[in-house]
Amino acid sequence: MITDSILKEAAGRVKPSAAEADNLKNTAREIIGRIDSEAARLGFNVHAIHVGSTARDTWLRGKRDIDIFLMFPPETPREQLKLEGLQLARSVSDDYEEKYAEHPYISAIYKGFDVDLVPCFNVPDASKIQSAVDRSPFHNQYVLTHINGLNDEARLLKQFMHGVGVYGSELRTQGFSGYLAELLIIRYGSFLDTVKAGANFYRGLVIDVEDHMDPGVKHPEPLIVIDPVDPKRNVAAALSEQKLYEFVDACRRFQKAPSLDMFFPPPVEPVDEPELLEIIDDRGTLLLTITFRAPDIVEDTLYPQLRKAEESVVRMLELHEFKVYRSGVWSNGKRCAIVLEMLVWSLPNIERHLGPPLEQREHADRFRDKYPDAYVFGYRYAVDIPRKYPRADELIRARLTSCALGKQVSESIRQDFIVLSGTSVLSVGEGIGEFLRELLHRK
Amino acid sequence: MITDSILKEAAGRVKPSAAEADNLKNTAREIIGRIDSEAARLGFNVHAIHVGSTARDTWLRGKRDIDIFLMFPPETPREQLKLEGLQLARSVSDDYEEKYAEHPYISAIYKGFDVDLVPCFNVPDASKIQSAVDRSPFHNQYVLTHINGLNDEARLLKQFMHGVGVYGSELRTQGFSGYLAELLIIRYGSFLDTVKAGANFYRGLVIDVEDHMDPGVKHPEPLIVIDPVDPKRNVAAALSEQKLYEFVDACRRFQKAPSLDMFFPPPVEPVDEPELLEIIDDRGTLLLTITFRAPDIVEDTLYPQLRKAEESVVRMLELHEFKVYRSGVWSNGKRCAIVLEMLVWSLPNIERHLGPPLEQREHADRFRDKYPDAYVFGYRYAVDIPRKYPRADELIRARLTSCALGKQVSESIRQDFIVLSGTSVLSVGEGIGEFLRELLHRK
């Protein structure tokens, strides 16, 4: 059957070769050995463990990430964990940088692998965690003991999610995390059964593998997958409604017409200028682009700010009676852009300025004094005045900095921003053409 | 003082001369005499009375209306009242026509007066009325016994309301009735005190002269004036919020700058083509006019239908993403018009066609099959399709007859209607220029 052969082919492509797997596991063991002996040498009560998809044998071929956690006794003072943790972690490789999540950790290059070395508290169970990272070893443990040989099914699901654009729980994507994909496989038993179930996922669905959810915790998110190691936590908290339903749609499409392309889509072709001209001409809309230097912050900070800025701009435009057909945010690390496809971007010279209700006599009298042409409009005064911003781009230029924007995005916009019309959006930077193809749903 | 001299001048202009008053009252007595003797001759147990503003001495100079009611015993069968009433009424003048309210009556010309001859039941009190007209003699009685010489103050108020455009409780105006004006004078004691009170009228205000309102009856109207002869009835039921506040505004303006012009405004100058061109040019809006033959119905039936049609058209336009800045309805008895000042009247070639929520799988699948370019839009499918009506006038031409319109307006529109753009609105008929000046608040 066609599905079988597609799955076989896909599985073959996503499973690491024996050599790759051996190499990775040997490397991880080496690192653990180094940490453990260094700890012994220094007299620290610490040992290292390997976590993450490469530890659980659910990683996708070619991925070269190793996550090593340095397990400190739970009573260790935080300051000591930080100091000793970093000291141990730095001993692995000279090629490293210090990063920071809830506390600092080391990201090193070792024998061609990206190795994250993360100090954490070795708590007795997940309800006792002192830091968010302390949960990871429990996740690891849970998957290792429950996946029961379905590792390749998890790989298929991850690759499928990747191919259809919903994989990744970082705030840029707002999609499915690797751990979430693994839990779905554990829950549904196979890739195909997950697709079958996923085709009918809906807002508010609760998946509670361990049947232990805490009824006192309300989860407002579109999909609720109760963490097997923490009854209060929704593993799918980062998943947006849009990505949930893109996954549902993808599952249905796969059921209807399975294809290898859904796992390994051809690269997105950037939209070029002639094509963009043709699109705009056909549609008759106006592309407006606000672009500015990307602030020097991680994507998980940047994207929420970009989305906030996008929302503010759209709200401002619609308050001023312009109409936005669709919008999106983009960054390539150097520049950012808010792209707006406008349905109404130019308006007549007048606008109605609504005055106070006549019932508020003092205000109403003042309004009438100020505007001799005021008229009664229902229960209020109103007056026709010259429209201050008859064009959307003028409004943006004049008022963008007064919109609610995230901190760093706001700082960047205050320094400088440019409003571009039409095809000049293509000049904002590398990768914008691919973004536009997806934004405009142009196949 | 300036107000005094304005009021004196206005009072002098609105009070009928002694000769006019004598002539009218003598004529009314003559008619009553004719009816009564004819009734005696025919052996009917009926007598006539004079009601309305000419009976209450609150009519405005030059008004030549006489309302005569034919009082039948309350136990008279309706059929008998109709037959005998018309028979008596026809005896007054050969120059008459039969009209119809709740039951038939006669409108006659007699010695240059317009005489309405209305049969009614002579019930013992207003709570026993069998027909709406039976209430009029009680209104008459109430005003006669309570106005206490304030007749000329009532005349001033009526003329003021007329001058500022809020007088008349018919459904064309939705303003103040004569009886309502008289009650306000009775309540507040003078024209100036009514203006003082009126300047602070507000939605939901209850004026209950007899302090007898029935708390079981809810009045949703903007102003509630409890009928002194019927605790359940709101005398101001026909008054719209717009007219209430136009009156409030006028009272305030009069307080601030009293002027004879507010009683006797100069005639409204029609807008002519050069001025209209200039207005449209200045504002940058588009005037769209839908015009059709006026159906052969009374204004009280016509205007609610025109307003309903206006509302439907505006709703249809806004559903299709056009924007109406203001609108109004007009008729001169021959033609009707719905005039729309458009803020957005032309739109790009695409529109978003929203599909079903993905949760409704069957519908969603059918949608996706039908539209291969469908995309996920939040929790629904959507697709960009060619906009069917990129221009407001095309939409109106294609879909007006499918709007909810009143019965006779709908019939007329189904026969034929025309959509005009810009200054060609001036061609729809006599009186449109005056209407446009007021619609556009053009002084």
TrEMBL record, chains A, B:
Keywords for this protein: ATP-binding, Magnesium, Metal-binding, Nucleotide-binding, Nucleotidyltransferase, RNA repair, RNA-binding, Transferase, tRNA processing
Cited SUPFAM superfamilies: Nucleotidyltransferase, PAP/Archaeal CCA-adding enzyme, C-terminal domain, PAP/OAS1 substrate-binding domain
GO biological process, one term: RNA repair
Ligand binding (CTP): 53, 56, 139, 158, 167
UniProt-recorded Gene Ontology molecular function terms: ATP binding; CCA tRNA nucleotidyltransferase activity; CCACCA tRNA nucleotidyltransferase activity; magnesium ion binding; tRNA binding
InterPro entries xrefs: CAA_C, CCA-adding_arc, CCA_tRNA_nucleotrans_2, NT_2-5OAS_ClassI-CCAase, NT_sf, NuclTrfase_I-like_C, Polymerase_NTP_transf_dom, tRNA_NucTransf2
Lineage top rank: taxon: Archaea
Pfam families linked to this entry: CAA_C, NTP_transf_2, tRNA_NucTransf2
Signal peptide from the UniProt entry: none
Needed cofactors: Mg(2+)
UniProt similarity note: Belongs to the tRNA nucleotidyltransferase/poly(A) polymerase family. Archaeal CCA-adding enzyme subfamily.
Misc: A single active site specifically recognizes both ATP and CTP and is responsible for their addition.
Binding partners and assembly: Homodimer.
Protein name: CCA-adding enzyme
Name of the gene: cca
